[in-house]
From TrEMBL:
Originating species: Couchioplanes caeruleus
Lineage: Bacteria, Bacillati, Actinomycetota, Actinomycetes, Micromonosporales
Keywords: Endonuclease, Hydrolase, Nuclease
A Pfam short name: DDE_5
Domain Transposase IS701-like DDE stretches: 1-221
Protein name, as recorded: DDE superfamily endonuclease
Alphabetized InterPro entries for the sequence: IS701-like_DDE_dom, RNaseH-like_sf
GO function term, MF aspect, one: endonuclease activity
Length: 402
């Protein structure tokens, strides 16, 4: 297997086309919601492995975060509505030492959206694709770079940020002067600097109690020619959006409920828009379940690989296996352990579907010799041929469903 991963190849173009053409989950209004996040493959002891970066890893205690060498991977997934641990994963990309994380993420999202448009998943007149991200991404920069695409961007921002309100109307002054570009400060830590919110909503939730939401329209950060905007030509733009403050009554586990600040690239939000944004953002945490499945159940970071390109091939194989589990979701049966509670067929988790996956091949229709030969020839990958004993059931199921 190691020889195949180190020397093999994967037809990435065909794989991306196959992943993009599969049906993606949509929310109630028919909108596709994409989440982007980074998960590291830690290789602290691989001193000879190239392209390693210091990856941020959270500790179990407060202020116990660490930076451990490894390969960070940027994942783009399509989220499902409601409480679930299922996601659809159309793309992944490894970040290199010389990469700008925001620029690479924007390019990755652009490629995914272009493929969705090319295959008909996103058409003219459809609701714009919503992209959600955490505070580690520059949400304002992403919104500006992707402004020519049918997308909306929302993300969490730090609670110590200072934004600006719109500039006041220009007033004539006898001594002249440049008209103001920014308005007054909106300090997230200082409630005295907050104007009256444009939208307020109150909702009852099952997991968090009462959810109180306030939104302010047309707020923007004051940009400078530093960091991501260092090479920007011309005047710096004013990227306006909607600021949303979410305060819940309590959190699971008796934790303190701190306010959550979100910035959305849209303006002129009404109460349904505000509720749609923060509810879609909460679904971003389903991606954490996918990372846990990859590492603990599918064995994503288990091989001791030295070459990062071999790690890329193994990562794509994990995505193919996860996609096959998602396709087998309506066919799997619940093989639960004695101490586990029964689960309805439509509520099976990815781990339970994987547990019952081996029983699908004997009960499925057998493929003809010609189809099997075509499948083998279509792979044309030494990496896949070396691991087909492990994933041959997934290949059969994919061919049966297609």
């Amino acid at each position: 297997m190691y020889d195949a991963l180190n020397q093999g190849r994967i037809d990435l173009r065909r794989l991306l086309r196959a992943l993009t053409t599969l049906p993606l989950p949509r929310f109630a209004d028919g909108r596709i919601v994409l989440a982007v996040d980074v998960s590291p493959w830690l290789r602290s002891d691989a001193a000879c492995s190239p392209d390693r970066l210091f990856c941020h890893v959270y500790g179990r205690a407060k202020s116990a975060a660490q930076f451990i060498p490894g390969w960070p991977y940027s994942f783009v997934v399509a989220l499902e509505p409601g409480r679930t641990s299922w996601t659809a994963m159309p793309d992944v990309l490894r970040l290199g030492p010389a990469d700008d994380a925001t620029a690479v993420t924007a390019s990755q999202l652009r490629d995914v959206i272009d493929r969705l448009i090319a295959c008909g998943q996103q058409q003219t007149g459809d609701p714009h694709i919503l992209i959600v991200c955490d505070a580690g991404h520059d949400v304002t920069r992403l919104a500006w770079v992707l402004r020519d695409l049918p997308v909306e961007v929302t993300g969490r921002i730090r609670a110590d940020r200072v934004l600006r309100v719109p500039a006041p109307p220009y007033e004539y002054h006898p001594y002249g002067g440049r008209p103001p570009k920014h308005g007054g400060e909106f300090d997230l830590k200082d409630p005295g600097s907050w104007p009256e919110p444009a939208v307020t909503t109150v909702n009852e939730t099952a997991s968090y109690g009462k959810a109180d939401t306030r939104a302010w329209n047309r707020l923007h950060p004051r940009l400078t020619h530093r960091a991501a905007w260092l090479d920007h030509e011309g005047k710096l733009p004013v990227v306006e959006g909607t600021l949303i403050r979410l305060q819940v009554e309590y959190l699971p586990g008796d934790r303190d409920a701190q306010p959550l600040w979100l910035w959305w690239s849209g303006t002129g939000a009404d109460p349904p828009d505000v509720d749609r944004i923060w509810q879609a953002y909460l679904r971003r945490f389903d991606l954490e379940h996918t990372f846990r499945l990859f590492k603990q159940t599918l064995g994503w970071t288990r091989p001791k690989l030295r070459n990062p390109r071999a790690a890329d091939r193994w990562t794509w194989i994990m995505i193919a296996a996860h996609t096959q589990l998602r396709l087998a979701r309506p066919l799997a049966i619940d093989l639960r352990r004695p101490w586990e509670q029964p689960s309805p067929p439509d509520r099976l988790t990815p781990a339970r579907v994987r547990r019952g996956f081996r029983s699908l091949r004997p009960t499925s229709a057998r493929l003809s010799h010609n189809v099997r030969s075509w499948a083998v020839k279509a792979c044309r990958s030494r990496a896949f041929m070396a691991i087909d004993g492990r994933l041959w059931g997934e290949v059969q199921l994919h061919l049966l469903r297609s």
